[in-house]
Amino acid sequence: MKVPFVSLKATTDELKEQFLSKVEGILEKGDFITGSELKLFESDYSAYNNTSFCIGVNNGLDALKIALKAGDIGNGDEVIVPANTFIATWLAVSEVGATPIPVDADETGNINVDLLQAAVTSKTKAIIPVHLYGLPCNMDVVMSVAANKNLLVVEDNAQAQGARYNGKKTGSIGHINATSFYPSKNLGAAGDAGAITTNSVELYGKAMLLRSYGSSVKYVHEIAGYNSRMDTIQAAFLNTKLSKLDEHNNWRIRIAKLYSVELKGIGDLILPAETLPDCRQIYHLYTIRTQQRDKLRNYLSEAGIETGIHYPLSPHLQQAYQHLGYKKGDFPVTERICETTLSLPMYYGLTEEQAGYVCKKLKGFFM
Ligand SMILES: *Cc1c(COP(=O)(O)O)cnc(C)c1O
What we know:
By secondary structure, the chain is α/β, with parallel strands linked by helices. The protein has helices at residues 9-29, 36-49, 60-70, 88-95, 116-119, 139-149, 201-211, 232-242, 245-263, 293-302, 332-340, 352-366, and strands at 53-57, 78-82, 99-103, 124-127, 152-153, 164-165, 168-169, 176-180, 194-198, 286-289, 341-344. The strands form four sheets. The protein has a four-stranded parallel beta sheet, sandwiched between helices. A three-stranded antiparallel beta sheet has the order 1-9-8, with helices on both faces. It has a two-stranded antiparallel ribbon with strand order 6-7. The site of pyridoxal-5'-phosphate has 15 residues, from helix 3 and helix 4.
């Protein structure tokens, strides 16, 4: 049996016809830039998240960057970020001229909110909590630290579309929030795309300007903006997919339950954190941890099972961030996660038979 780490085939097969007919309409009308499908997506995605506004942009990194810039974060400012995240979270901070200040993970993999307060200095202007692997962060603590210190909160919801924290959608709790529709995300486009969500009319207005050359009236430029509009064709794809998101997330939750029941107590495995009451994690990734990660990965690969590592090296130890002067040992929990984490196959369309086979092989390894 072959089990890929991720496959988009089941989703694409489901949506293909509807998408192609939308593309035909777009081609006929030449409605390529900020077309009607984009407006429809922005209104449906803000309704889905229960936010007042949504702004479609080019990708997740741009969404983060524009969100920070809309909040006037720039040169000389410090922004608190998780040590344990995809590097895009940090890069957005660097791109606006601010400095990422990492905070270590807790055992769930998410930012350790008990360490937040101590990371705040007189230069701190914002916090970017990341709902890593689709697991909601403790937003109550994030929001209360931010309120005390008057900080902007930008949720990085790239891995958590449809997740819920205390009954609210993640990506609707921070002041302005960013997400990515990179194809393999839970809500993936047919290429690059991203979005910003907010309830603030001021931040919305500023982000709208930033996304399109700082201009709301053609050839009138109020600020120096970017070019980061979501393509109408990507929006059309996302419109066909958004109505399936809950169903697709439920599929992942069902597979995750199967993994968690089957793998409980096996070897030295650490399984994903349990979902707290009134929350919903949507398993963008199903990550396990073991001291024998590399050996296990090879073993599974020989059995036809593809896995992933999220992430092999954290941003503070990457060459790109050498200038910040961090060294091994600075963020021990994050480093331990990087050395031991393994992501099992997880996607809409993965069958119970396939997941059962993954578990059987995993048990065999530890026997
Ligand atoms: C994917 C991802 C991003 C960046 O999204 P792109 O669309 O690839 O730019 C940002 N943050 C996190 C946590 C991600 O997983």
